[in-house]
Design goal:
The complex is a heterotrimer of chains A (149), B (123) and C (194).
Chain A: E1 3-4, H1 7-13, E2 22-25, E3 29-32, H2 37-46, E4 54-62, E5 67-75, E6 80-88, E7 95-97, H3 106-117, E8 120-122
Parallel strand pairs in A: 1-6, 3-6, 7-8
Antiparallel strand pairs in A: 2-3, 4-5, 5-6
Chain B: H1 6-32, H2 64-87, H3 89-92, H4 95-116
Helix pairs in contact in B: 2-4
Chain C: H1 9-26, H2 40-44, H3 50-61, E1 65-66, H4 74-81, E2 95-96, E3 104-108, H5 116-125, E4 131-135, H6 136-141, E5 163-165, H7 172-187
Parallel strand pairs in C: 1-2, 1-3, 3-4, 4-5
Helix pairs in contact in C: 3-7, 4-7
Classes of the chains: A alpha/beta (149), B mainly alpha (123), C alpha/beta (194).
């Protein structure tokens, strides 16, 4: 069975690289600063002990006060999983770096998050709507979205 | 001798008549008004699974398709000659084996030539 | 906006968006049946000739379905078309991939606004006479997604529907009953109505 790596373990393994970037440590993941997500993802991927080299999914959530983006990583060698979280307080124009440069598979899910939550991923090769049509007003997974019906 | 083929001529006539009638029936029914005719612009456009066509519908195919078609035809002809030979193998005897092998040999030379010239490669 | 071979993908997306917006704003009310040829008046004075009988027998015995299924009700249709329920009994086993050959659209499943222009176009490209069956709750009213931002609240917003089959999804037997109803409707048509 795939076991979650605790946040403390990762912070312990990547103490030097993560310095200053970690906001809080949770039981199954860590919350980091949005601007440093690229460096942290690279560290997590290339670290010889962790080997969290498989990005399973990216999820966006609206918590009313802030938006949260969660990255779920797997280590296929160690059979472990781990979650990285990023909070975006600026709800009017949320933006963060894209992970498509490291995992090309992130492209579709980042576009989906842009489509449904309105988070712009800088560095994404094709940042436009994917499931809804061009010209759709608003982002339907936001809690303040109103259908107008 | 020729009269033996009269039935075939009759058959051809019937086939042609049948085909023409099938084409003409809907046209005639349309004239009478039995078949509803509601032409519209969209109806006469090419069908692309419900999407609008981008660009021209009449596109040119690559000349490469015809190379393949030509090579396939020679293969077909080989089969056409091989089949009656295989059926009559007992009567023709072993000497026919040499004949058919030389026939395949000639074709094989052509094939190898085409192959070496790169006709089987998609460019 | 015209789309050409050198249009960028964003151009094509914008063109699609405009189409959807146009369709969405123009279809806020259900489409009424075009002729209303089964009104009470006509029912009482219905007058069928032998020509009508022959034509309608031919039409109802070979209702060919267009393969334009959008979502999960399709599985009930697949079940219907295979051996257990066997719509080959009605001459319907031929599923056409081209609307030029088809007489019937079975609207199996939820329709999103993004898919709506395509379905409408396929319907418009079908040869006359043509029929539509609205299958399942989503086909009738949009079902549980009726309030959604992306779902068409019922196929009757964009297509004239002949028979409604409720259910989520309708069982194949219900679909058979609907097809029976449609066959009865086809029988009553007179060519004089055009």
């Amino acid at each position: 069975m795939t076991v979650a790596i605790t946040g403390e373990e990762v912070v312990g393994a990547l103490d030097k690289e993560l310095k200053g970037a970690v906001k809080s440590v949770e039981s199954e993941g860590i919350l980091v600063q949005a601007e440093k997500i690229l460096d942290i993802a690279l560290c997590v991927k290339n670290n010889k002990n962790l080997k969290l080299d498989y990005l399973v999914s990216i999820t966006g959530t609206d918590y009313i006060d802030y938006l949260e983006v969660s990255y779920l990583f797997y280590s296929l060698d160690n059979n472990k999983r781990f979650t990285l979280k990023v909070r975006l307080e600026n709800k009017s124009n949320p933006a963060m770096p894209s992970l498509t440069g490291i995992w090309i598979g992130a492209e579709l899910q980042e576009r989906e998050i842009y489509d449904l939550l309105g988070i712009t991923f800088s560095g994404h090769p094709n940042m436009k709507r994917i499931f809804l049509w061009e010209g759709f007003h608003g982002h339907p997974l936001r809690k303040d979205f109103s259908n107008g019906n | 001798m020729l009269s033996e083929f009269s039935l075939i001529a009759l058959f051809i006539l019937i086939v042609m008549g049948f085909a023409t009638t099938l084409v003409l029936i809907p046209q005639a029914l349309k004239k009478i008004g039995i078949v509803p005719s509601k032409p519209s612009e969209v109806k006469y456009e090419p069908y692309e699974c419900g999407l609008e066509t981008i660009g021209e519908t009449w596109v040119q195919f690559k000349i490469r398709y015809y190379f393949y078609a030509l090579l396939l035809i020679t293969l077909d002809i080989t089969v056409i000659f091989l089949y009656p030979w295989a059926v009559e193998l007992k009567n023709l005897g072993s000497s026919s084996l040499g004949v058919i092998f030389s026939f395949i040999g000639i074709l094989a030379v052509g094939y190898i030539y085409a192959w070496r010239k790169g006709a089987l490669e998609w460019k | 906006m015209e789309i050409r071979t050198d249009s960028t993908s964003l151009d094509i997306d914008r063109h699609e968006g405009n189409l959807i917006k146009e369709l969405r704003s123009s279809s806020t009310k259900p489409v009424t049946e075009p002729s209303g040829w089964l009104s009470e008046d006509l029912k009482r004075n219905i007058f069928l000739t032998t020509v009508d009988n022959v034509l309608n027998w031919g039409r109802k015995s070979s209702l060919w379905t267009e393969t334009a299924f959008t979502a999960c009700c399709t599985f009930e249709f697949i079940s219907l078309s295979s051996s257990r329920f066997d719509i080959a009994r009605f001459g319907m086993e031929v599923l056409r991939s081209s609307p030029r050959h088809a007489d019937l659209i079975i609207t199996a499943g939820t329709l999103t606004w993004k898919m709506a222009p395509q379905i409408k176009r396929v319907y418009e490209q079908m040869a006359e006479p043509k029929w539509v069956i609205a299958m399942g709750a989503c086909g009738i009213t949009g079902g549980i997604f009726a309030d959604s931002y992306s779902v068409v609240p019922g196929y009757n917003r964009i297509l004239p529907i002949d028979v409604y089959i409720p259910g989520c999804p309708p069982r194949p037997e219900a679909l058979l009953a609907g097809i029976e109803l449609l066959r009865k409707k086809v029988e009553k048509r007179s060519f004089l109505q055009g």
